[in-house]
Amino acid sequence: MKSAPCNEELQKTISRALIVGLGSMGRRRLRLLSRFFPDLSLAVVDCREERREFVAREFDCLTFDGFREALESFAPQSLIVSTSPEAHAPFLTEAIRMGIHTFSELDLLDDGYDAILPLEEKGFPVAFLSSTPLYRSENRWIIGNHEKTGARKFYTYHVGQYLPDWHPWEKYDEFFVGSPRTNAIREILCIELPWLTECFGKVTDFSCSWSRTSSLNLPYPDTCQVLLRHADGTAGNLTVDCVSRKAVRNLRISGEEGTILWEGNSRSLCYLSPSGEPVHPLLQEKELERQAGYAEFISESPYLEELRHFFSLVSGETAERGYSYARHREILRLVDELERVWREQ
């Protein structure tokens, strides 16, 4: 196998990126990189021939059926890991040790973290963990403006979508959400808790209830209701499900000085003053076109913004580090505690 380029060489120019995994997220990353990073040479790895054939027809990139072959032949300087969550760790640890910058989709497990965390602390190569809501304009506005509702506040937040609608092109029990270890409720919690804790502080106390409210053939409960207390004193009532036939993301933050309402898109974000006068701060925002097959509240723009942040870190244009593996381990341990309630029933 070819030796990895030296740090100086990597820092000067990043011209080759390898994507591992061509499921829905891998194809999304490939679409965005092809469109917005035209100077980047791209290659992809996937063991499924039909996925490689589709990509070869639609995109100008090399395809490989094996990771080691891709490392040897393509010599990537950056790696995008978009496999199923349980498969992230081996690709990341090998690439980081070779001096290759890595971008990983959000983890549902902390497999490999004992090896990744010390490497992350060094800062080079860049080890970047996705947490897309932190790049979404509505979430960023809420994080920066929730105190408009008052120093003390509470929120109610419901996020849900019928699981068979997540990936209509495949059976819900045939991708990673069919496993209790990487279940659908865990994924939603791992998506939402990072930005909620960025907004209100760490969770200092919680209680939760799990239930089954559908006929879905799942080895885990399909609904989770959590009462949270955050470090800034905010109380939260979070409901997560994979049952709602109409996809829902509905947030209300209430305090003495106003109310923030959000239904999952920029048009719906609203601040109500005590007089009831509405302010829609992002009403005129323009987003990338949405991809067919995804819920209305799934915006493409934040996926692009976090890729831009990653490559800005890699090129040295910014030193502002993104969401960290160390911070996410705390979220994963919190989710483990929440799941303990139903696992021990």
What would your notes on this structure say?
The protein has 345 residues and is of the alpha/beta class. It has 2 domains: 7-131, NAD(P)-binding Rossmann-like Domain (Rossmann fold); 137-297, Dihydrodipicolinate Reductase, domain 2 (2-Layer Sandwich), CATH 3.30.360. It contains 10 helices and 14 strands. It has an 8-stranded mixed beta sheet, covered by helices on one side. Helix 5 links the parallel strand 4 and strand 5 (101-104). Residues 1-12 have low confidence and may be disordered.
Keywords:
345 residues; alpha/beta; Rossmann fold; Dihydrodipicolinate Reductase, domain 2; globular; six-stranded parallel sheet; 14 strands; eight-stranded mixed sheet
Helix and strand arrangement:
Blueprint: H1 7-12, E1 16-20, H2 24-36, E2 41-45, H3 49-58, E3 62-64, H4 67-74, E4 78-81, H5 88-97, E5 101-104, H6 113-122, E6 127-129, H7 137-145, E7 153-160, H8 184-200, E8 203-211, E9 223-230, E10 235-241, E11 248-255, E12 258-262, E13 270-272, E14 278-279, H9 301-315, H10 325-343
Parallel strand pairs: 1-2, 1-4, 2-3, 4-5, 5-6, 7-10
Antiparallel strand pairs: 7-11, 8-9, 9-10, 11-12, 12-13, 13-14
Outline:
With 345 residues, this protein is of the alpha/beta class. The protein has helices spanning 7-12, 24-36, 49-58, 67-74, 88-97, 113-122, 137-145, 184-200, 301-315, 325-343, and strands spanning 16-20, 41-45, 62-64, 78-81, 101-104, 127-129, 153-160, 203-211, 223-230, 235-241, 248-255, 258-262, 270-272, 278-279.
